[in-house]
Amino acid sequence: MKKTITYKVIGTISVLINTLIIFLSIYLYYSYNFSGNLYYVMIPNYVLLINALIGIIGIIISVMLIRKIVGIRLFLILTAVLWLVVLLNYFFPVF
């Protein structure tokens, strides 16, 4: 019973973090293309698209954890790899 509640809490927190990743990517895309602001450093549009897709994949994996389709080990490994890719894309974008 404790594991089920723990998995649901971890999955919910992961869904929220992945939602924030999606919103940040969409916000940056919108502000780069549809505002009059000039930015000194801009992340390429394809990197923002990749980050949004990774956020969607992260939400799917989190829901699979909540529904007990995947185990906690696989979830943690996949989530850590996906979040690492997103953070590396924001700090070291490939041009």
Write the layout of secondary structure elements.
Blueprint: H1 2-34, H2 45-66, H3 72-91
The dominant shape is elongated
Helix and strand element order:
HHH
The number of E-state strands comes to: 0
Total domain modules: 1
Task: Label this structure with key terms.
95 residues
Give the gist of this structure.
With 95 residues, the protein is mainly alpha-helical. It has one domain.
If you had to describe this structure to a student in words, what would you say it looks like?
The chain is mostly helical and 95 residues long. The protein has one domain. The chain is 79% helix and 0% strand. The chain has 3 helices and no strands. The mean pLDDT is 90.
